[in-house]
Structure formats: structure tokens, C-alpha cells
Amino acid sequence: MKGLFKNKSRLPGEIVRQTRDLIALAESEEEIDSRNSKRLGICAELCRNISDLKSILYGNSEAEPVPEACLMLTQEFFREDTLRPLIKSIPKLDLEARKDATQIVANLQKQQVESRLVASEYLESNLDVIDSLVEGIDHDHELALHYTGMLKECVRHQVVAKYILESKNLDKFFDYVQLPYFDVATDASKIFRELLTRHKSTVAEYLTKNYEWFFAEYNTKLLEKGSYFTKRQASKLLGDVLMDRSNSGVMVKYVSSLDNLRIMMNLLREPTKNIQLEAFHIFKLFVANENKPEDIVAILVANRNKILRLFADLKAEKEDVGFETDKSLVMNEIATLSLLDIKTADR
Which PANTHER family has this protein been placed in (predicted)? Predict the structure, then answer.
């Protein structure tokens, strides 16, 4: 099958250079006169170029992408800064060109040059691009989806995830996951999960250093005040984070807090089973803790009958032997727990 770039009069590198020039021209013409017909012609040509770049990276109905063409495109893209102006131009493009540009940026995060992820190296030196993507989610619905689509791929790079975690950008995601547009909120939730689960050593270090702030925000904004969708996603993510071995120290600290236990007990009383089940997987960590603090033992004993009645009726959506085993162990531990355990724990 013939390569895509062999059927074109222009090589991939040339298309990238022309695209970069067209973005600059479109911007300068707009500054001069937004009604200028010349600018409209430049924008049309820019959209065609972006479509050609997407075809090189993804192929089309007639041909698969050619590695050599992808390499040439990638090298030129990062030889000079083309990623930043392309992202900046997205609000000015038509809908199809926006989609194409989003896919180009996403695809470039995976392209390698001599076994190096050059996009990762580029972003490490140009982290303001990540600021632009995060801030872009604050745009209207249609634009926000393009920014989340690009950012989902960028956060796969450890340097990007670390930057977002350690910057004010992370705080924005406590709001983004609750945006009124379901598809945008879903994308934001996927990015949030990626930030907290993919790069384990980075996440463990961050949570250890920022424990108080992070969990205060997480508990208040997501687990206590969130919608059904927010509470379900947040409780599931929290369970995955706490049960990851790399976060063992953070988990022990979390399950030693009476305030955190009360939040889980409230989630267990939610009317929806899905939230109850997610809360159970976190609640069992409090019960399994061999060094339960005095106040936690006291509240478990004081609420023993209510907890046991609730768990007696709690069942997984599908038959789940593991869940039933865990539930049995938790119920047995609570049933045999007494205030004498406080004294035992203190010795």
C-alpha cells in the first residue's frame, strides 16, 4: 500500500512549516482587520493543512500511517515550537479543524524520535502549555472537550503529572469533575484519576507532603458535597488510591482519622447501592487497622448494631465471592470489638 506522503506534493515537514506560518498569518491578519477576506482564505488553508497532518498521523480509508512520515512530521513539529501556536489557535478554527488539531496533539504525545518521547521533553521545558490546556477547560462546552482530549494524553507523561499535582492547577480539578456538562466532567474525572494513579512514586510523594490540604479538599468538595456522580467516582478513586501499596503510609494515616470514618459511615447510609459499595471498600480499611485509635474503636462499638444491620442487607450487583468474604470478616470484627480493645491498643 502506498504511503500517504508519497501521494502528496508536499513532505510532512513542509506541511508542518506551512501550518506554523499560516497560524502566524491568521493571527496577524486578525489583529489588522477581522473582516478581511484574505484572513478567511488563510483560515481555510490552515484547516486543510491541519487535516493533512492528521491524515499523516492516523492514516485514512486508503492508507495506513507510514512510520517515516510520522517521524518527519514529529521532528519538524518539535524542531521549532508548533505545538503551542496550534493549541492557541483552536478557538479560531472551525469544528472539524478543532477535532483534527485535538487528535494531532494527542497523537504526538506517543510519537518517538530515536526511542525518545520528544513531546515529554518539550513539555518539560514548556510547562506553560499545560497551564493553557488546564485553563482551557473553563471555556464553553464544545471548546472544553478539545482541551480535555489533549490533556488526557499529556498527563501520561510523568513530568506533566508532577507539575499539575504540585501547582495550583490541581485545585481546579475539584471543580472540573463537577462541571454541568457530563462529557466534560467525565473527561476531567479521567484526568484526575490518571494524575492520582498512574505515576505511583510521584503520587505517593505528593500525598505525603500535602496530606492535610489534599484530603481536606477531597472530603469536603467531593465526598460530602458532591452529586451522586461525583460521590461515586470520588469514593471509587479514593479506594484505589488508599489500597495501592505505594500509598500505604497515607492509607494508615487516613484510616486513623475519626473525621474520615464519619464521612465513610455517612456514605454507607446513602440511598444508592453503588455509593454504599464503594464506601464499604474504604470502610473495611478502618476496621482492618490493627492499631485503631481510641475514638475510632469507640464509634464502631457505639454504632455496632446499626452497622451490622446495614451490612446484612448490603449485596454486590453481581455475585461476588470476594465481597461476601470481606463483608463477613468486617462484620465479625465489629461484632467482637469491645472497648477493652482500646486498652489493648494502648499497651
Answer: CALCIUM-BINDING PROTEIN 39-RELATED, GENOME ASSEMBLY, CHROMOSOME: A09
Q: pLDDT digit string (tens) for 139-152?
A: 889 899 999 999 99
The answer to whether 248 touches 233, Cβ cutoff 8 Å, is no
Residue 24 identity (one-letter amino acid): A
User: Whole-angstrom Cα distance, residue 321 to residue 315?
Assistant: 11
Going by pLDDT thresholds of 50, 70 and 90, the confidence category of residue 320 is confident
The string of DSSP letters for 112-132 reads EETTEEHHHHHHHH-THHHHH
HSE-CB of 46 using CA atoms within 13 angstroms: 25
Rounded CA-CA distance 122/157 in Å is 11
Which alpha helices (DSSP H) does 82-154 contain, by range? 83-89, 95-108, 118-125, 128-136, 141-154
Fold category of 212-346 in CATH: Leucine-rich Repeat Variant (1.25.10)
pLDDT tens-digit readout, 165-209: 999 999 999 999 999 999 999 999 999 999 999 999 999 999 999
**Domain(s) of CATH 1.25.10.10: residues in the chain:** 212-346
